[in-house]
Each structure stands twice: as structure tokens, then as C-alpha cells.
Amino acid sequence: MGLGPSTHSCWHHSTRFPLQALSRLHPECEMLFQLEQEERSCLRFIEEQSNGSAEGCRPFWEAVVCWPPADVGETVHRPCPAFFSPFRNSTGSVSRNCTSAGWSRTSPPYHIACSVDDDAPETERSFFATVKLIYTIGYSVSLVLLAVAVSILLLFRRLRCARNFIHIQLFVTFILKAVAVFVKDAALFSSDDTNHCTLSTFACKASVVFCHYCVMANFFWLLVEALYLNSLLVSSFCHARRCVWGFSLLGWGVPVLFISVWIASRLYFEDTECWDINEDSPYWWIIKGPIVASIAVNFMLFMNIIRILVQKLNPRLIQFNNSSQYRRLAKSTLLLIPLFGTHYMLFNFLPDYINVNLRLCIELCIGSFQGLFVAILYCFLNQEVQKEIHVQWLRWQERSYGVVSPAAKGSQMDTPF
Q: Residue 127: which H helix or E strand, with range?
């Protein structure tokens, strides 16, 4: 799922970047590489002029503009650099006077002549910093609670069953996704001085691949949860051990296949930057396509489960109060939404360029707390888990203080899924 700033590579600033690759870059990186090309051209021009007259003002590169040589008293005008065009579409110009003491200051200043809003980049940085803080908190809290949830499900023998095995795998994918995000941030954004448009180390590419795999595995285990729940409501064939192995192959193995194909495609056809910029890349659909398909299938399974629940709660078949019926149906539906990742249907089929800031908030900020919600709903609020913890607590009291409780004599799993 491609967010925020990108990565950086072994490309040195003096290395020529192939133009065919440049056309597929993120707009921000395209600007930077264009600026580097202009700088190289200017430095070659300055070197060619090095044997010229020592009188007047010598040519120099001023970060964004190349100033040619000039005679004393001459005024040189230069158009606003294209680098500023993303901030303001301006056709203004700046000028410098060549004096006996050297070049004068730029007149008017760039931010006035080129209508550059100094606050725009700062506002954007502040927004991304806030988003990063929120999703860092979300993934951190989710990571801790998911680790506790996995420990609980593994610790108590009575909780070991096919359903909880699948829950554990899903929890692990959320844990891995959180770890992958932290690893990727450390590799790509550990320093403000890192040029994410040119970094192309093995470490940063490996972190991106690991992140993509964890995200893809997470979506496929959400699909496994949906398939398993559908099978429980329709039939009981999934109680067989071979079905669990088949789910494991789907959840862990299928993402390996697609990620391997994507790695090969990037290596041979699009080995640019740190593989973290995927805009306009046809190879990105090797990963995105299966994820979109899994979300679509999950949504259809979700609707089918709701249909089955409505049928099972039909007042003509079961005699109970209507308000209680719909409360149960509403509760079941709300519990299934985070388990199936149904909320992704809200934005996953929209083009990437639509309301980017809102998409970032949904995908990063809200998405970072999904593991937290799943752990709470399917472990800590699970009556079966609560009962087992209560029984173990009573048994501990019995061993410690000799207090015997009838509830400690046994427990029974009473929830079907």
C-alpha cells in the first residue's frame, strides 16, 4: 500500500539517470532529477568558461538557476526555474546586476518573483508528520495488544482449535505488518538528509519487499477468515486438518508467489529507486491486483454471511423479540467489518489521485488501528477467552490460597466461531 516519502539509493548525484526511467518517477522525484540535470549542465558550462576573461562576473550555479558570465554594469535576467512550478504556475523572472564587487542579490527575491508560497511546503511537512505520528501510535499499540492476544491463544490448551489457529495467523500478519512499517520507515526516512528519490540499496529494497509481503499476507488471511466463517455457516468440512493446511498455503504461500513475480519484474524491467514508488507502474498490479480481488471476494463473502445471519434470525424460525433479533444481527455485522477488512471497499476501487490526503488518513491512520480492533473483538472480548482466563485465575487462587471454586473444575468452549 504506498505511502508518504520514498526511498533512496546507491545512485550518486553525478550518475546519469536514464530518461525512460525518469518518465515513470513520482512528480517530486522527477523535479529533483530535472534539477540535477540542470546543475550538471551548468557545471559543464562553467568549466568551459574557465579559460575566459577574468574581468566581470563569473558564471555560477545558484541551487536552482545557472547564471552566465556578465560584464561589469550588465544586468542579467533569468526566468523562474521550472523547479518552482509545482508550488505556483508562474512565468516571472529574476535578475542580478554585475558590479565591480561581484554579483548583486537576486531582484526581486525568488518567493516574490516566482510567487512561491513559503508556507506550503511547511504545511505539507506538518501534515505528513502528524499522519506519521498517528500511525506510529496506532501500530505500536496494535503490536503490543496483538502480541498479548497471540500469547493468550497459545498459552491455554483449551483455546487451541482450528478457529483460533486461523485467528492467530491473522494476528501474526498484523504484527508483521506493524513491524514492516517500522522497518521501512527506518530504512527510508531515518535521516532528513536522505534523498528518497535516489536511494537504491539492498537494505531499503528488502524492507519494501518485506512490507509488501506482510500487507499482502494480511489481506489473504482476512480472506481465509471469511472463507472459514462461510464454511462453518454452510457446512462443517473445514474441521478437517487438511483444510487448515490449505488455508495456510493460501494465506502465506500465495503472497510469496505474487511477490516473487513482482521482484523479478522490478529487477528486469523497472529497477529504479528503492522500489517504493509505484505510480503509473504496470508491474504494481502484480501486487495490487490480487489484493483488490481478495477485497472484492471478501466483500461478497461478507454479504453472504449477513444474508445467512438474517435467515437464521428469521422470527418465523426462531421465536424471540424482534428488537433483540436485530441487535444480534447488528452486533454480528459490526464485529465482522474489521475481521473482513470491509472498510477497504470505501476507497480501494477509487483512482489513487482522488483526495490523496483523505486516503492517507484512512489507509494509514485508521488502518494502523485495525489490528487493535481485531485483537480486542476476537480475543479480549471473546467470552470463551474470558472464561478460560477466569478459570485459570481461580485455579491459581486455589493453588496459592487453597480456595476451591466450582467454576475452576472445568471450562467449555461454547462459541462456534
A: helix 119-155
What is the spatial distance between Cα 104 and Cα 148, in angstroms, rounded to a whole number?
Answer: 65
The 10 Å CB-count burial string (b at 16+, else e) for 222-253 is bbbbbbbbbbbbeeeebeeeeebeebeebbbe
In a domain, 4, yes or no: no
Per-residue pLDDT tens digits for 15-47: 333 323 333 345 556 667 777 788 888 888 888
- 107 and 135 share one domain: no
Q: What's 252's domain CATH number?
A: 1.20.1070.10
Kindly provide the b/e burial profile for residues 101-119, where b requires at least 16 CB atoms within 10 angstroms of the residue's own CB.
Answer: eebeebeeebeebbebeee
Using pLDDT thresholds of 50, 70 and 90, give the confidence band for residue 122.
low
pLDDT at 236 > cutoff 80? no
Residue of 155, 165, 301, 180 whose CA lies nearest to 241: 165
The answer to whether the predicted template modeling score (pTM) of the entire model surpasses 0.90 is no
Please state the φ and ψ torsions of residue 75, each to the nearest 5 degrees: -110, 125
Closest CA relative to residue 32, chosen from 54, 48, 8: 8
Q: How many CB atoms lie within 10 A of CB 142?
A: 25
